[in-house]
Amino acid sequence: MAELSVADANPRARALHERLGYRVTGRGADPGPAGPESWTRMRRDPAGVQEGVRVGGC
Question: Strand, helix or coil at 5?
């Protein structure tokens, strides 16, 4: 099992991780210089991984 947090300001990163089998497990915010910076916690579900998805030069 793998878990990560994705900044909500980067929707492309969240979309990529969803394609790789990660699912949302929570949300939160951390203090930042310009105010709260929201994030989404995601966990990888090995059974939900799509076949044929490649990352980088793999």
Answer: strand
